[in-house]
Amino acid sequence: MSNSEIAAQGQRYIMNTYGRYPLSFVRGQGSLLWDADGKAYLDFVGGIAVCILGHCHPDLVKVLQQQAETLWHISNLYWIEPQVKAAARLVKGSGLDKVFFCNSGAEANEAAIKLARKYFYRQGQSERNHIVTFLQSFHGRTLAAVTATGQLKYQEGFNPLPQGFHYAEYNNLQSVSSVINKQTAAILVEPVQGEGGIRPADTEFLQGLRQLCDREGILLIFDEVQCGMGRTGSLFAYQHYGVKPDIVTIAKGLGGGFPIGAMLSTDKAASGFAPGDHASTFGGNPLGTAVAEQVLTIIDDPSFLQRVESAGQDLMRKLRELNDERIVEVRGQGLMVGIEMSVEAAEIIKSCMSKGLLLVGAGSHVVRMVPPLTVSDEEIRQAVAIFSQVLQESAIA
C-alpha cells in the first residue's frame, strides 16, 4: 500500500490519539527510513529517543532472533536468565542495587511512585505519601504519571486526578523548599527535561536536591526515561552531575526499539517492596531483556559514550553557527538537543520532513533532535544543512 492508502485505512481503524503525519515507514537501516512510496528520510527522531542504535542494528536483530527461537515468555514466577544478566549490567553501570523491569517509561514512573509511598508505609510513616515534581515536566500518560507531569494540557479532562502531588519550579531550589513538608515522600525530577523543551538541570540544582533530600529524609527519584541510556554522553544523565539518586527510571533506549522499561533503586529504597506489592506480567520477559543486555553491552563503553558527547557538541556547534535570528537558544546534552525558536516549531518540522529530515517538537517553540547515538558526522552535517535550508527558504517570522 502507498502512504495515502495506509493513512486512509489507519484513520478508519486506529483510535484518534495521535496527530499523525500522512507517512508510513516500511523499512529502516541505521539512521535512515524509507516510506511506503520509496522516499528516504534521515531520522533525527529515532522513535522519540528510542532507537539509540539506529534501525535494525545487526547485533540486536541477531539476539532477538536467537531469543525468539528459544523462549518468549514464562512469567516472573520463575527466574529468567536474560533478565538477571540485564539487571546485573544495570546495577554495575548505575551504582544502584536492585532492578524492577516493566514495559514502558510511564510504568517505570508508576513503580517509582508506588515504591516511594510503600517505603514510608513500611517505615511506619504512612502519612508521608506526597510527591514533589516540576513545572514543564513529563512523566507519562497513566493517571498517576500524568498527574506527576507538571503541564495542565496533559491533565485536562481526566479529573479527579490522584492526590498528593505538588509542583515546583525547575532549577529553583527555593521553590522546592517552599512545597516540602512532613508529608513529602519523594522528589521526582528529570535531569534533562524532555517534553518540557530539552532543559538540562543546573549542577547546583541537582546537588541541592540531593542535600535537601538527605536532610529531610526524602527519596530522590530521577526520571531518565528520555535522557538515560547514553543519550547525554554518560550511561545515566545523573553521572554528569556527581549526584546519586535513590531511585531512577529508564525505558525508551533501553531496548533500542524493543518495548522495555525499568526502575532501579538502592537497597534501602527497594526494601519498600515485598512480594505482592507490585508486579508486571510482561516486564522483564526473555525477549526484552535479551535485547536490553545487548544494548548495554554496546553502549556501556567509554569510547562509545565519548563519541556521543563529542557528536552532540558538534551538532550544537553547527546549529549555533547558523546565526538565524529566529533561533533563541540551542541547548542540550550529548545527542539530546533542543533548538528554541522565536516562532512555532510545527511548520519548520513539517518543511524539514518534506526535504527528507525527520524532527520532532518539544513544546510549541522547540525543535528537538534526538538521532540514533550511532549517527555519523556526515549525517549530522546533512541534517544541519537541511535545517539551514528550511530556515533560509522560510518566511515564518
Describe the protein.
This protein has about 400 residues and is of the alpha/beta class. It has 2 domains: about 5-55 and about 300-395, Aspartate Aminotransferase, domain 1 (Alpha-Beta Complex); about 60-300, Type I PLP-dependent aspartate aminotransferase-like (Major domain) (Aspartate Aminotransferase, domain 2, 3-Layer(aba) Sandwich). Helix content is about 40%, strand content about 20%. It is built from 14 helices and 17 strands. Helix 3 (about 60-70) runs antiparallel to helix 11 and helix 4 (about 80-95) packs parallel to helix 11. The protein starts with a helix and ends with a helix. The mean pLDDT is about 95.
Short synopsis of the structure:
By secondary structure, this protein is α/β, with parallel strands linked by helices. Helices cover 38% and strands 18% of the residues. It has 14 helices and 17 strands.
What is the third-level CATH name, the topology of the largest domain? Aspartate Aminotransferase, domain 2
> How many strands?
17
- The shape is globular
- What value does the average pLDDT take? 97
Beginning-to-end CA distance, first to last residue: 38 Å
> In order across it, which strands form the biggest sheet?
4-12-11-10-7-5-6
What's the number of helices?
14
The percentage of residues in β strands lies in 15-25%
Short descriptors:
397 residues; alpha/beta; Aspartate Aminotransferase, domain 1; Aspartate Aminotransferase, domain 2; seven-stranded mixed sheet; four-stranded mixed sheet
Can you lay out the helices and strands and say which pair or pack?
Layout: H1 3-13, E1 25-29, E2 32-35, E3 40-43, H2 46-49, H3 58-68, H4 81-94, E4 98-102, H5 105-122, E5 130-134, H6 143-148, H7 152-155, E6 165-168, H8 173-179, E7 184-189, E8 192-193, E9 199-200, H9 203-216, E10 219-223, E11 247-250, E12 261-265, H10 267-270, H11 286-299, H12 302-320, E13 327-333, E14 336-341, H13 346-354, E15 357-358, E16 360-361, E17 366-369, H14 377-393
Parallel strand pairs: 3-15, 5-6, 5-7, 7-10, 10-11
Antiparallel strand pairs: 1-2, 2-3, 4-12, 8-9, 11-12, 13-14, 14-17, 16-17
